[in-house]
Amino acid sequence: MIKISHAKSMPSPKEIVAVEARIDAIFNNEYLQFIRQHNGAEIRNGYYDISEQISSYVRYFIEIEDIANDISLMADDEISQYFFPFAIGSGGTYFLMKKKGDACIYYYDSDYMGHDAISKIAQSFNTFMNNIKSDTEIRIEGTHKVVQVTTGKP
């Protein structure tokens, strides 16, 4: 099971609107529910299968007030025009969402630039969260136990 810990302060509605305006984005409801409880949280030993050959650790979720800074650190104008990073992966990789439009999750490989750098990996934020695996899980014939993570209030 993955463990989410060390969340930072919960952002106010006013802070959320200010970040959305600053990066010209509209956060989807699933992501909003998550950051209200887990803004800037870390994941211990959580990884995501990007493809059959590639996996990446999901290190931590970017605090919403730091998203604009991480957009500039990506130094990829083509991608940062339409996407924003919400989590940091292994070795300088990011997990992205579109600023507006679909709610899909994308993987950004910093070894490439532009659209060659991204791969769609999940249809929604909750699907992404539910498919993060613990590196302590036992692999059996190439399959993984799926970890369910609740992102909303019961």
In words, what does this structure look like?
This protein is α+β, with helices and mostly antiparallel strands and 154 residues long. The protein has 5 helices and 9 strands, in the order E-H-H-E-E-E-H-H-E-E-E-E-H-E. The protein has a 7-stranded antiparallel β-sheet. It has a two-stranded antiparallel sheet with strand order 1-2. The protein is globular, with a radius of gyration of 15 Å.
Give me some keywords for this one.
single chain; 154 residues; alpha+beta; seven-stranded antiparallel sheet; two-stranded antiparallel ribbon; 9 strands; 26% strand; globular; disordered C terminus
Shape: globular
Count of extended strands: 9
Low-pLDDT residue intervals, each spanning 5 or more residues: 138-154
- Listing every helix as H and every strand as E from the N terminus to the C terminus, the arrangement reads EHHEEEHHEEEEHE
The side-by-side strand order for the widest beta sheet comes to: 8-7-6-5-4-3-9
SS-derived structural category: alpha+beta
Outline the biggest β-sheet: 7 strands, antiparallel
Helix content range of the residues, please? 25-40%
Strand content: 25-35%
Query: Roughly what is the average pLDDT, rounded to an integer?
Result: 85
The gyration radius over C-alpha positions equals 15 Å
Number of helices: 5
Write the layout of secondary structure elements.
Layout: E1 3-5, H1 13-23, H2 29-38, E2 42-44, E3 46-49, E4 55-61, H3 67-74, H4 77-80, E5 83-89, E6 94-98, E7 105-108, E8 118-122, H5 125-130, E9 133-134
Antiparallel strand pairs: 1-2, 3-4, 3-9, 4-5, 5-6, 6-7, 7-8
